Amino acid sequence: MIRPADESPEQFDVRPEKRTKKDAPVNKKVAAAAARIPKAKAETAHQPKLSKKRERQEEEVPLHEKMSRLSLQGYKKEAAEAAFRAADSVAELPLSAETLPIIFKLENDFRTILSQPTFPHKEKLQHQYNSVVLPLLDSAKNFIRHHPKSTAAQAAASKGKAFVLGKSALESAKEKNITLEANVDSAQEVILLPEDNTVLKRMGAKAKEESYLADSLFELMSTQAVVGSFDIKQANYEAKPFVQMTLIGELQEEAPAALDLIMQRLTPEAECNAILTGEIQLLDLHYKNLAVAPVIPAACEKYVEFRLGPDFDEPIPLKDFLIKHLNGELDQTQPIQFVERATRRGKETEVLVQTTFKELPREVKSALDCPWQFVIFDTDASIGEDNRLQNLVEEDQIKTLIPLRSVLLELDWKDRPLSEQAIERFIHSDAYDAQVDNWIRRNDAPIYQQISQEARARVEEITTPRIAQYDLSSIRRAEENEYITVSDLRGRFVESLCEVQSRDSRALWRVIESELQYDFKSRAVGAITGRYVIARQLFPRLTVRQQEALRERQANRKEYLHNYMQLLHAPATTRTELERFINQPTTPLSSARRKELLASLRNRNLQALTGISSPLAIKEAILNETRPTYFNLMKSMYPLLADAYALTEAVKGKAEAGENIGCFDCSLESIIEEVKERFSHDLSLMNMAEHLEEQIASIKNPSFFGFMAPSDASDD
What we know:
Shape: globular
Strand order of the largest sheet: 1-2-4-3
Structural class: alpha+beta
Largest sheet: 4 strands, antiparallel
Number of strands: 13
């Protein structure tokens, strides 16, 4: 398949043709076909010395301007060829829910290529788009219309679904006079269009990049990702589908009993996605940024427009009908009206049915206890550079937060045991983790496919120290610019590497030259563009600090689950083994609770520990306290979360503790100060407060979130 439009320039072959002793022209395949640029065709393998006039002209043009001028020209023919091949391949695929995202991805890539003002073989590509791609698109749309719920259940926010809904949402927004051009620089403007089953969100460059990275990681890690989106470029918005979703915040306020039952009926895939929100490190997953949706059986698709008596007012979606049932608002005698759709003799008919809750059709009753999944539709503000602390600056005051914010910490569900399927998924995650690491490091980049392993090792030896200098936190803090992105850092790295001034830059290009048999250090057009194309492939998708933080979360999660399962299945457990388990940093305990358990074990004070003197009961009590739950997995991945939560719970109360973790207007400094004022008599709380203070003082360069005005702290 064609790569995403923002990635396509680096995906083409960068190997030039090998030079011969006769010095035949070699620029036909330099740096993703850069030598197909007319200016480059006249140059030879010797790269002859430029005339003095041309040298002066080359020197007067800054390198970054040369690269921006040349960066796209050499890729267009390859992009067209790739598009032809992809369209032919996709046309042969059977139409199904699984192929929908592929079709919509293909259509998006065609539009991106055809949007270029000039393009080789553009007419031929346009014909392919009209004759092959558009019919595929129409077929996909028809499939969605006839299978709306089953498609949603399999891929709640797939690219294809978002595409269809995004287009209709744009039309609806115009009809309702919603001004899409407002707040262009804001990443926080969200427009919910329930009637169109769509979310429209304003996306600045930073938010777009964060969402792209988080969504891509979800797709790599999850078996049922629910974060796909459709980018509406002309309005600088992205569209994501509701898919019959209900916001967690709405359920908290209006149907708490239903929310509790829904959380008990999550699919194993939904549990996994909940854990992934922490592993991918969503930093703004508040109660308006997460939703739930029912996995409605396909047999229920024919039942629509539910109305409740006695008045049978406005129709409600099936998911709202289910929520009312789960919230205890319907009794057996409740009058209900709905429309049943059927196809008879090739014609679609609709029949109005009026009955009671007790007499509902069997198919509808099967949906009453259906499983539920998460809809994660807001994924910017993600993937920080530390797992312990993060800073933000508000009115010149530095605030410190735990680098995680999740509405799931507010729910009782956080302490319920996860399903065996979800636990197994994260115990055996090596394949997923390797796939993620390969993607982050760009191991599929063409340059790595065309040089030897020895040369690659030498390239990485040269570039790794330089890449490590580019971290978002330090640069955002130093330049007082929170909108700097990984793409910006990549641009700086590329320009620095392409200057060929430093010793390590020249050493790098010598290594690549020896492998590809081409002089990349000259000022020739082909060499400049070649350096640019190759250098872009050498910078990873995440900063080194982001990678280290992600790998630490994965390693901590694995270690915790391994240690827990080892203790669980041990036929006999000694006091020393229990102490070792408790002492592990990844065991999900606060610092105070860890000391309390260790002291009790060392003093053999069994009564103080569990109230029962049996060694087996001690083990069971510890296993019960540290069993795999959402909260315990978060505590294993975020080393200071347990202490921060315990202190916040003491200050704010149990109902608001989870709401304030990672929240911009509730810093750790303010919590610690209040603990000292109100709980100076509580040695356990005071010890945790001192522990957090020590961490805040000792961590010199925590992850930096950005600068914030007081009004920005609102969830709205």
